[in-house]
Design brief:
With about 325 residues, the chain is of the alpha/beta class. It has helices at about 1-20, 40-55, 70-80, 95-100, 135-145, 160-170, 185-190, 255-270, 270-280, 290-310, and strands spanning about 25-30, 60-65, 85-90, 110-125, 150-155, 175-180, 195-200, 210-215, 240-250, 285-290. Belongs to the UPF0065 (bug) family.
Length: about 325
C-alpha cells in the first residue's frame, strides 16, 4: 500500500512537471456552427480572455466546423486527442439532444466538462400588436382552441422546442409548433404577425423591445435584462429552459491540464470586462466549472431523453 501511494505521488509530480509549460502552442476551440453566429461570437470573445487567464503568451484559435446542427463539431472534439490543445464549444441541451434523434459518435460521457460560460433563458414572446398581454391570456386562448395557437421555434430538438413542450405539459394545452431554420427567421415571422407566439432565448429579444412583448422568462428568477417581466413560475407554470453555452475537452484530459483550464475559467467569473462584453450581446455570464458542469449537462440530457421518449420529434 505504501509503495502504491508513493508511486501515485511520484506520478502526479511528474505529470505536473510535464505540463508546467502548458500551453506551449495554440489551443484550438472547435465551434460546430458558422462564423458570425452566437456561439462563434462567444468563442472569440471568451477566447481572448482565456488567453490572458492562462498567461505565458497563450494563444486561442477558433476553428469553425459547421454542419448537422453542430454534430460535426461536437464529434470532432470527442474524437480529438485529449492533450489540452483541442477544446470545443458545447451547447446544451442541443448537443446532447442530438444523441437521441440520430446516430451520433459521441454521448454525454465522451467529454471532460471544463466550464459553462453563458446561461440564456428562454422566453414566451409575442409581437407588440398581439392581443395577448400576459401568459395567462395566451394559455386561455390555447385552451379555448386546442392546436390552433401557432408557436415559432428556431428548430426542433433544442431549447426552443423543449420550452414549448414543457409549457404544453405544465399548462395542459396543445400548441401548433412551427420550426424555422434559425431564431432570426422565427423572430421575423413573429414580428410580421404570421404566427401568434414565439419561444426564443432572451438574448434574441434584446434590441427588439419596440417590436416584441416578452410575456415570461423561463428561469428560476427574473433577468436583469428584463426585470419587469415575470418568470413562468411566478405566473403558476413550473417551467425552466434555456440555452447553456460552455467549453468541453475530449474525454481523458490529464488532471493537471484539466485543473489549469478550470482555474482559468474560474478566474473569468470575476472579470468585469468579459461580463460587459457578454451583456452587450444580451448574455449573462454564468461560470459553472468541472463536476458541477458535468451534472448540469447530465440533467439537460435527462430532460431531452425524457421528452424524446414521450414526444419524439423525428
Amino acid at each position: 500500500m505504501l509503495k502504491r501511494t508513493l508511486a501515485t505521488i511520484l506520478l502526479s509530480a511528474l505529470s505536473a512537471t510535464a505540463f508546467a509549460d502548458y500551453p506551449d502552442k495554440p489551443i484550438t476551440v472547435v465551434v460546430g456552427y458558422s462564423p458570425g453566429g452566437g456561439t462563434d461570437v462567444l468563442a472569440r470573445v471568451v477566447g481572448k480572455y482565456l488567453e490572458k487567464a492562462l498567461g505565458d503568451d497563450a494563444s486561442v484559435v477558433v476553428k469553425n466546423q459547421p454542419g448537422a446542427g453542430g454534430q460535426i463539431g461536437f464529434t470532432s472534439v470527442a474524437e480529438a486527442k485529449p492533450d489540452g490543445y483541442t477544446l470545443g464549444t458545447f451547447n446544451l441541451p442541443a448537443a446532447l439532444a442530438l444523441t437521441f434523434d440520430r446516430h451520433a459518435a459521441y454521448d454525454a460521457d465522451s467529454f471532460d466538462y471544463i466550464a459553462n460560460v453563458v446561461h440564456d433563458p428562454n422566453t414566451f414572446v409575442v409581437s407588440r400588436n398581439s392581443p395577448y398581454h400576459s401568459l395567462d391570456e395566451l394559455i386561455e386562448a390555447a385552451k379555448a382552441k386546442p392546436g390552433s395557437l401557432s408557436v415559432a421555434l428556431a428548430s426542433l430538438g433544442g431549447n426552443d422546442h423543449f420550452s414549448a413542450l414543457l409549457m404544453e405539459a405544465a399548462a395542459g394545452v396543445d400548441f401548433n409548433l412551427i420550426p424555422f431554420e434559425g431564431a432570426s427567421m422565427a423572430r421575423t415571422t413573429l414580428m410580421g404577425g404570421h404566427v401568434a407566439v414565439g419561444t426564443m432565448a432572451l438574448s434574441q429579444t434584446v434590441g427588439f423591445e419596440d417590436d416584441l412583448r416578452v410575456l415570461a422568462v423561463l428561469d428560476d428568477q427574473r433577468s436583469s435584462y428584463a426585470p419587469d417581466v415575470p418568470t413562468a413560475k411566478e405566473q403558476g407554470y413550473d417551467v425552466e429552459m434555456g440555452s447553456y453555452r460552455g467549453f468541453v475537452a475530449p474525454k481523458g484530459l490529464p488532471d493537471a491540464l484539466e485543473s489549469r483550464l478550470e482555474a482559468a475559467f474560474r478566474h473569468l467569473a470575476d472579470n468585469p470586462d468579459l461580463r460587459r462584453e457578454l451583456a452587450a450581446q444580451g448574455n449573462s455570464l454564468d461560470i459553472v466549472v468541472g463536476e458541477d458542469y458535468r451534472r448540469l449537462a447530465e440533467a439537460q440530457s435527462d430532460i431531452a431523453g425524457d421528452l424524446w421518449k414521450h414526444q419524439p420529434w423525428k
